[in-house]
Every structure is written in structure tokens, then in C-alpha cells.
Amino acid sequence: MVAVILLLCFVGLLIYVIGTQLADLYKEWPQFQEQIKNTLWEFRGWVQDNFHISRGKQLRAADAATSKVLSPDTAAVGATVLSVSSILLFLVFTFIYTFFFLLYRRLILKFLESVFLKENKLTVYKIIEQVQFIIRKYIIGLLIEMAIVAIGVSTAFTFMGVRYAILLGILTGLFNVIPYVGIFVALCISATVALGTSPDSTQAIWVIVTLVVTHLIDSNVLLPLVVGSKVRINALVTVIGVVAGEMIWGIPGMFLSIPCIAVIKIIFDHVDGLQPWGIILGDEERKQNKLATRLMVKDKKIAKDIGSAR
């Protein structure tokens, strides 16, 4: 119950902060529209001067996409409300599922013991223990990474004078959980907000540069340092998993795809006959980050010391 309440408080605080920032942005929506239109007009002038394409042709080509983004279409509003409702419903059921999984964890463990043959019990215990350890380490590390990215981006945007820096930082931290796709979505949102709230169009360029640098630091330093090298899944399987997760379960599926693949890989690695599938899901050892490799060796040493102490 305490774990569920803490999770509920964290999500509620997150929704409150994002909601207040979005409410402020909605109040300035007419100015935001006007600024976007002015920026697009200046950009069309630059294209006309350099590429000799008239503003009329550019306007006809981009009018459909621009009108969908800037006008409060009824279908778009309905889709947004439906999406928000599904996310809230997902959160409610997540709390319920989490509570009952924690409440009946011993019953679930007893079921897993009974469903397999006695000679496989040791393998079942190993898989369950490793799944618990890796998923716990992965989720905690991911939350820490999310907080660091959100605080870093918010601080950088504040110093740059970007409006709604806290909102953009939180969104970047949240979307950063989705591999490869998330940072691109956060980049598009942040650049659009910068264009719509600042008369200086170069600010959007600096926003893009900041997010690209943040992504490089996160991928090469922060991710192996905080999350560790426990969940080693190659890039191809990661992209396929994210796309498949979105097709099956929408946005929540994109967030949950990597932990699910990690659990599947652990099962494949411990079951004879399925180990080749575990190899294709994983990454090559020689491609591992040096820092991640050192952390992996350190974790093995700590685990060995704990085993010796026992």
C-alpha cells in the first residue's frame, strides 16, 4: 500500500506540474499562433530568396499541415480527449494491478513453482530472482536518469530564456524513456514552443542543439552510469520492440517494451533450446561501453562478496 501511495503521489505531482504549465500555454495560444505564422512567413521569404519558390506554392503545400496543427479541429479535440482518457484509465488500472501483484506476490511465486516440473525449480528460481533484480535496477535507474535529464534541460532552457522551460524539461525527461523515438518527439515539441514564444528564431536552433548534446551525453555517459549494463538489448530489437509496443498498446506499450523484452531475454538465456533467441536479442560484448563494462565487473564482484558473506 505504501509503495502504491508513493507512486500515486509522484504521478499526481507530475500531472499537476504539467497541467499548470499547459494551462499557462493555453492562455497565450492566440499569441502562439500569431508567432508561428510570422515565423513561417519569414521562413517562406528565405526559401523564396534562396530557392526561387514563391510563397504561394509553399503556402499551398504546407497549408493542410499548418491548419491541422493551429486550428482547434473537432476531430482533433475528440482524439485528444480520448487519448487523455485512455492514459488516465491506464494509470488507474496500473495502480490496481500493482497493489494486487504486491499483495499476491507469494501466491504468484507458489504458482510458478507448481506449474513447472521439480527438476526445473532451480532454473525457475534463478529466472525469477534475476528478473526481480534487473527490472528493479532498470526502473530505479530509469527514474534517476529521467530526473537528471529533466532538471538539466530545464536549467539549460531557463538560462537560454526559453519560455515554459520546466514544462519542456519534464516532457524531455519523460519522452527520453522511449529509446530513439522519444528524444526526436521532445526535440520537435521544444523547437515548436520556442518558435511560438520567442521573436528570435535562432532560439529554436539553440534548443535543438541543446537537446542533441543532452541526448549524446545521456546515451554515452548517463545511461551506462545510472541504469547500468544489465539490460543489454541491441538497437535493432529495441526499435522493433518500441514500434510493436506502440501498435499493441499505444504510448504505454512504448514505455514498457524494453522491460518486457529484457524479461523475455532472461527467460531465453536460462532455457535450453531458446538460448539462440536470447543471443539475437542481446548486444555483442565488444560493442559494450567501457564504463558499462567496468560497472558490470564491479556488480559481479559485489554479488560474489555478498555470496561469500552468506
Q: Whole-number radius of gyration?
A: 24 Å
- The assigned structural class equals mainly alpha
Helix and strand element order: HHHHHHHHHHHH
Q: Main sheet?
A: none
Query: What helical percentage do the residues reach?
Result: over 70%
Oligomer: single chain
Number of β-strand runs: 0
Task: Indicate the mean pLDDT.
Answer: 77
User: Kindly, what is the distance between the CA atoms of the first and last residues, rounded to a whole number of angstroms?
Assistant: 31 Å
Q: Tell me, what's the shape?
A: elongated
Low-confidence stretches: none
Strand content: under 5%
Please explain how this structure is put together.
By secondary structure, the protein is an all-alpha fold. 85% of the residues lie in helices and 0% in strands. It has helices at 2-27, 29-51, 55-70, 74-103, 105-115, 121-160, 165-175, 181-197, 202-227, 235-270, 275-281, 290-309. The longest helix is centred in the middle third of the chain and has 40 residues, at 121-160.
Short descriptors:
310 residues; mainly alpha; 12 helices; 85% helix
Helix-strand blueprint:
Elements: H1 2-27, H2 29-51, H3 55-70, H4 74-103, H5 105-115, H6 121-160, H7 165-175, H8 181-197, H9 202-227, H10 235-270, H11 275-281, H12 290-309
Helix pairs in contact: 1-7, 2-3, 2-8, 6-7, 6-9, 6-10, 7-8, 8-9, 10-11
